[in-house]
Amino acid sequence: xxxxxxxxxxxxxRRAELLARSKEVERELDSHNSKDWEELATERETDEVxxxxxxxxxxxxxxxxxxxxxxAEGTYGVCAKCGDDISQERLDLLPYTPLCRACAV
Length: 105
Prior knowledge:
The chain contains 4 helices and no strands. It is mostly helical and 105 residues long. It has one domain. Helix 1 packs antiparallel against helix 2. The longest helix is centred in the middle third of the chain and has 37 residues, at 37-73. The mean pLDDT is 87.
């Protein structure tokens, strides 16, 4: 399997995991409707955390979608800012990054 194919598999699996987590967060948010004031306060705190988790997942999904699009275009692994290659070590850590280390700073 080529390096791009491995990365694509990795990104697709992570995307599916994030989508499943997002659906779980939505279900949990929809289930909160307590009439008790103390429980309602606790639910609202929990809702804020869940909403942040959902927002983080959505942002990562967008980054993954962009990386998959770059793969389809043949520009994956090339810095979107300077045009240099993105190191494999950086792609190992952030497989959806559009920037090399120098441009990300």
